[in-house]
Amino acid sequence: MAVPWERYRRYRCDATEAGLSLDVSRVRFNDDDLYRLTPALSSALLAMDRLEAGAIANPDERRMVGHYWLRAPELAPTLEIGHDIADAVASIQAFARAVHDGTVAGAEGSFEHMVHVGIGGSALGPQLVCDALGGAGDRLTVHVLDNADPDGVDRLLARLAGSLGRTLVSVVSKTGWTPTTRGLLAEMQSAYEREGLPFARHAVATTMPGSSLDEVALERGWLARFPIWEWVGGRTSVTSAVGLLPAAVQGASIATFLEGAAAMDRLTRQASDPHANPALMLAAAWHWLGSGRGDRHMVVLPYKDRLQLLPRYLQQLVMESVGKRLDRSGAPVHQGLTVYGNKGSTDQHAYLQQLRDGRSDFFVVFVRVHAERAGQLLELEPGVTLGDHLFGSLEGTRDALFARGRDSITIAIPAVDERSLGALLALHERAVGLYAELIDVNAYHQPGVDKEAAMGTLALQQAILRHLASADEPLTASEVASAIRQPEQASSVFELLDHLAMDARRRVCRVAGETPLDARFHVRAAGHVRGKGPST
Amino acid sequence: MAVPWERYRRYRCDATEAGLSLDVSRVRFNDDDLYRLTPALSSALLAMDRLEAGAIANPDERRMVGHYWLRAPELAPTLEIGHDIADAVASIQAFARAVHDGTVAGAEGSFEHMVHVGIGGSALGPQLVCDALGGAGDRLTVHVLDNADPDGVDRLLARLAGSLGRTLVSVVSKTGWTPTTRGLLAEMQSAYEREGLPFARHAVATTMPGSSLDEVALERGWLARFPIWEWVGGRTSVTSAVGLLPAAVQGASIATFLEGAAAMDRLTRQASDPHANPALMLAAAWHWLGSGRGDRHMVVLPYKDRLQLLPRYLQQLVMESVGKRLDRSGAPVHQGLTVYGNKGSTDQHAYLQQLRDGRSDFFVVFVRVHAERAGQLLELEPGVTLGDHLFGSLEGTRDALFARGRDSITIAIPAVDERSLGALLALHERAVGLYAELIDVNAYHQPGVDKEAAMGTLALQQAILRHLASADEPLTASEVASAIRQPEQASSVFELLDHLAMDARRRVCRVAGETPLDARFHVRAAGHVRGKGPST
After folding, report:
1. Residue A394 in contact with residue A344, Cβ under 8 Å?
2. I need a surface site. Which of A53, A279, A380, A384 has the fewest CB within 10 A?
3. Which residues in B lie closer than 8 A to residue A383 (C-beta atoms)?
4. Residues near A153 by Cβ (< 8 Å), separated by ≥ 6?
């Protein structure tokens, strides 16, 4: 089911300067709907103006929100901030050149790999950018450690066996001491020490100047330190050193990436007509589709393997920004906009069945890439290439959904290159900011995220271990819970004991009971955990 | 917020024989709720019995549903089917041995890589199994082509540059001629021809005996052919040759994988008490949580890097099975159960903000893995390892969600190994089957999926090209649409012309107009597409 030509013309927005087009003709709103949103959209644009001028846009954390300055330092509220931004970009470019030409090298030769250590906002942007722009010709191969999974560390170290002396480790933590990042740093440091390699000669830090990580990197003489600032949030840090360093080291042009973002910023900063401002149109479409409450979730389907991580990136950008309990006046609103997806056409074969036939509680964002391939064009039959199949799948799927009353948005970019990627991400950053204004939530804090989620459990673990070390005989979980005066925590105590007794190298041992839950636990006298703790 | 000990004992199901436990104590239902579901659960078990005995469980396609026989050939409804299953497993094991010992080798030596070509159900299971069980010690490195993206093909070929003569290509298509799979096969074949390598010496097929792919493989003398059968659906094919071949070639024990699945099948086949049958309990929990309509979506968070693809696998298994327009009596129900997620703790930093504070329209399935790591245990501080951080994150997050009224399920397995993975997947296969019985939909067809989604667009493309070839002057999209008597398709015609004119190597050229939509298009006389078409 095709869209009528006049509607298509009216609801397609060609952002030629930024090389991107946005087609919302398959969203069943009309000019009246948009007109009703006009006052709110105008206010949202004004609020974004104030934000870009340096207002305290995140009042809860009393900070400015400055990710737009990262690609337009001349707009920063002070000359000093502008200079800091420009200096950081220049230092990243210089460092990448030195890595590429071997001026900066590891203990065993020029760097061939980089391990990016970071979590959440410090990982998703870099992963997306490196996967989207990377390939067999990368200057360095970038790997990411983004989880407290020790087996994940083992798996990466096995892949890098024999190469650590030619591997750069980039540690990213805005505040400097996120527990998971700290643990991963200790793991990497230990791996270098086991190989007799000087870790400092392979390490760089990206963090706020003066943070504890910054101090460690300075004291130990790490290769380099790159700044981020309190006015850059993790989920909008991709155009800061967080995203730029891995991209530059891998071999991408970060100047072009920043230019793409800046072009989109210019285009979406002013125009108050949604038909001429794709960020405004996108925010308006999200609002209309979900009735301003996120009543439909957003399925993101980029039809290009290189963009497979885009949905995960947007999942964080959107959900962490708008998934809020309170609006800015403090009223409970329980807002949100759920995002998921992988890639087209692959996902068609995974869950299009439900999208077409099942619950009608979503809309789709199709991302189309014009460039087919750099390699040889092959005709599968006369006049038809594999890329025609990919494009045909997108068209056919979109039309089939439209015919069933399922709305969709299509964003098209010329290619997956630095410029288009910069524009695409900047478009979404601004759309999220505008949408948050429409629904009146603070898009820039995360009051519900406890980065120290593990800390309560770790404290309980230590209390259990202390008690068991002094106990005369094996105890059940509920006995331990009572003994440490936390009887209501018996189930958590059991799960912890069960966890600690799983690895025969650890001190906690299990004596089987009638059921798994009746098992008794005790500790061996001598510690059996091997390895050196972190000296940081 | 911990669960009371008695409730924890009651709602934790230890499937000891299959090495798995299921904890639904954080789902706020009670024994009365389960009791009300008892008649429906009993009927569901009986229906599964009939299915396993060979009933036509998928009436729309008039076929049996036999994936449970794949790990218990003795239960197959005929001796012949049982023999076919056992023979297939033996032939896969023999082939993998021959590949590993070099008896079967490529034109340039022993196989080091395998490219698995398949889409949807022919890709997600293999991807999950190979990623979960793989690592630096793999016998062969398995790559997957699962999309009609020509750039994706280029990127993989660049990684394999110089290695094609030591690369095995495994083509998987149940019916034998899925268009995307056919296109990818042509691409791979062309790559071998460009290198002067005999493709047949590097190719194997997995398909229904007698299919067109089977015939091609036979005629051309491919290395081997492995069967799948009409009674195996794509999304439940992981214990058929579809999943077993890549796992075996990579170096996994497929016998142990099948044993794990068989053990879970034995455990979940009979017991009518949900407290003793984790598949029944899981189906009941899904039903209660979503009010039998999928009103809450399922966020799957495996706390282990190796299981990162599990949510995508379950997304397909669940959504394609239960996302149906009609129930089995033909009444419109628009069912579904939306699944998404990546991995914990990573996802905590991406969207836990919304899960804790925002819309309460989901539940979480935590997957916990007991084994911490094979590598050296490192103490980050006395008595505390990185794995303790991972476990603490799971516990802390689960409790924080519970305190906010967000329910969750926890599945724990001893390790990510063949046995546990087999059990985990078999658990979900049966839970899906049981849940579909509870909501009375056919779990085994996919009437809304058009595998030929691209075909309408490709036909329109050919009509446009024919008309342009005979046109005297450049035409606009709407002129072309009128000329081919499809004026209502003008927007689709424009998008197609826009697509075809993007690559300068193709015949369609653009003359810019006042706006992008006013561009005119014409074709060059001589075809400029290079490369040989597929000879298959």
Report:
1. yes
2. A53
3. 461-462, 465, 507, 527, 529
4. A145, A184, A187, A188, B373, B375, B386
Checking if the pLDDT of A92 tops 80, the result is yes
Best CA proximity match to B26, nearest among B426, B400, B338: B400
Interface test with A, best of B154, B353, B536 (most A CBs within 10 A): B353
Distance (Å, whole) CA A27 – CA A364: 10
What does R_g of chain B's alpha carbons equal in angstroms?
26
Look at residue A152 and give its three-state secondary structure: helix
Is B134 in a helix, a strand, or coil?
coil
Which residues does residue A110 pair with via DSSP β-bridges, in sequence order? none
**Identity of the residue numbered B243:** G
Q: Quickly count: other Cβ atoms within 10 Å of residue B162's Cβ.
A: 8
State the Cα–Cα distance between residues A116 and A102, nearest whole angstrom.
Answer: 19
Residues whose CB falls within 8 Å of the CB of residue A331, separated by 6 or more in sequence, listed in order: none
Reported as half-sphere exposure (CB side, CA atoms, 13 A), residue A426 has a value of: 33
Nearest to A219 by CA among A235, A198, A200: A200
d(CA A379, CA B506) in angstroms, rounded, equals 11
Residue A522 a catalytic site member: no
Q: Tell me the C-alpha distance between A293 and B481, whole Å.
A: 40
Q: State yes or no: pLDDT of B440 exceeds 60.
A: yes
Show Cβ contacts of residue B474 under 8 Å, excluding neighbours closer than 6 positions. B509, B511, B520, B521, B522
Q: How far is CA B356 from CA A334, A443, B132, B347, in A?
A: 9, 15, 29, 13
Rounded Cα gap, residues A325 and A60, in angstroms:
14
Count chain A–chain B contacts defined by CB atoms under 8 A.
Answer: 511
Is B428 among the catalytic positions? no
For residue A261, how many C-alpha atoms fall within 13 Å in the half-sphere facing its CB? 26
Cβ pair B338, B297 in contact under 8 A:
yes
B384 to chain A: which residues are within 8 Å by CB? 458, 461-462
DSSP-derived 3-state class of residue B405: coil
Q: Could you tell me the pLDDT band of residue B222, with boundaries at 50, 70 and 90?
A: very high
What is residue B22's predicted lDDT score, i.e. its pLDDT?
A: 98
Beta carbons within 10 angstroms of residue B470's beta carbon? 8
A515 has a chain B CB within 8 A of its CB? yes
Residue B452: the pLDDT is 78
Is the model's pLDDT at B530 over the cut of 50? no
- Write out the H or E segment, with its range, that includes residue A410: strand A408-413
Q: Which two tokens stand for residue B225?
A: 């052919």
Q: Which amino acid is at A45?
A: L
Instruction: Dig out the tokens for A267 from the structure.
Output: 């285009």
Label residue B109 left, alpha or beta by phi (over 0 means left) and psi (-120 to 50 means alpha). left
Identity of the amino acid at B451: K
Parallel, antiparallel or unpaired: strands A20-23 and A408-413: antiparallel
Q: Which residues of chain B are within 8 Å of residue A325 when distances are taken between CB atoms?
A: 357-358
CA nearest B384 in A: which residue?
Answer: A458
Residue B223: what residue type? Answer: L
User: What is the residue-averaged pLDDT of chain B?
Assistant: 95
Query: In the predicted model, what is the mean pLDDT of chain A?
Result: 95
Amino acid at B395: E
Candidates A187, A320, A429, A437; catalytic one: A320
Q: What's the token pair of residue B459?
A: 């036909």
Annotation says A451 is catalytic:
yes
DSSP A449: -
- The rounded percent of chain A whose pLDDT value lies above 70 is 98
pLDDT in tens, A472-488: 999 999 999 999 999 99
- Please state, in angstroms and rounded to a whole number, the distance separating the CA atoms of residues A383 and B461: 9
Q: How do beta strands B141-145 and B508-511 pair? A: unpaired
How big is the CA angle at A457 (ends A456 and A460), to the nearest 5 degrees? 90
From B116, B287, B304, B320, active-site residue? B320
